[in-house]
Amino acid sequence: MDLNLVVFGIIFLILGFLIGVKKQTWLLAGFNEKRVKDKRKLGNLVGGTIAILGIVLVIGGIINFQPAEYIMYAVVAILLGLVVYVNTKMVE
Question: Is residue 68 predicted with pLDDT exceeding 90?
């Protein structure tokens, strides 16, 4: 069991819950409420994506996926893609 992946996964799950369900969008770096077209849709998209990534990290940590760096590379790539998508499609 890779404890680092499990801890990061739990942190991602908590952040995904806070952003997606509780709509705590202040947790998003650089979030400007005046520029976002649909705050609810943004919270659902970002929170859901982060929660799914958290589940992947927890599962990867539990099954002791080796090398774990590949999971982290994929997570970073997905998050960068999410940033690009949000900035091009959801921000005015």
Answer: no
